[in-house]
Amino acid sequence: MAEIKPVADTFHGTRVVDNYRWLENGNSPETQQWVAQEMAYTRGMLAHLAGRDAIQKRLTELLSIGSVTPPILAGHHYFYTRREGMQNQPILYVRERTSDGVASAKGDGPDRVLLDPNQLATDGTIALDWFQPSENGKYVAYGTSPSGSEMSTLHIIETKTGTILPDTIERTRAASIAWTLDNSGFYYTRYPKKGDVPEGQEMYHRHVFYHQLGDDPALDDKLIFGEGRDAEDWPSVSLSNDGHWLLINVQQGWTKSELFLMDLKAGTPPTRITTGKNFLYGGEVYNDKLYITTNEDAPRYRVFVADAGNYDREAWKELIPQADAVLQGAGVFGGKLFAQYEQNASSQLRLFDLDGKKINDLALPVIGTVFGSGGRWDRDELFYGFQSFTFTPSIYRYDLKDGSTSLWTKVDAPSIDPSAYEVNQEWFKSKDGTRVPMFVVHKKGVPKNGKNPTLLTAYGGFNVSMTPSFSRNAYLWMEHGGIYAVANLRGGAEFGEDWHRAGMLDKKQNVFDDMIAAAEHLIAEKYTDKNHLAIQGGSNGGLLMGAMMTQRPDLFRAVVCQVPLLDMLHYQDFQIAKLWIPEYGTSEDPEQFKWLYAYSPYHHVKAGTEYPAILFMTADTDTRVDPMHAKKMAAEMQAEAKNGASRTRPILLRIESKAGHGAGKPVTKQIEEFTDVYSFLFWQLGVKP
Question: Is the pTM of this model over 0.90?
Answer without folding.
Answer: yes
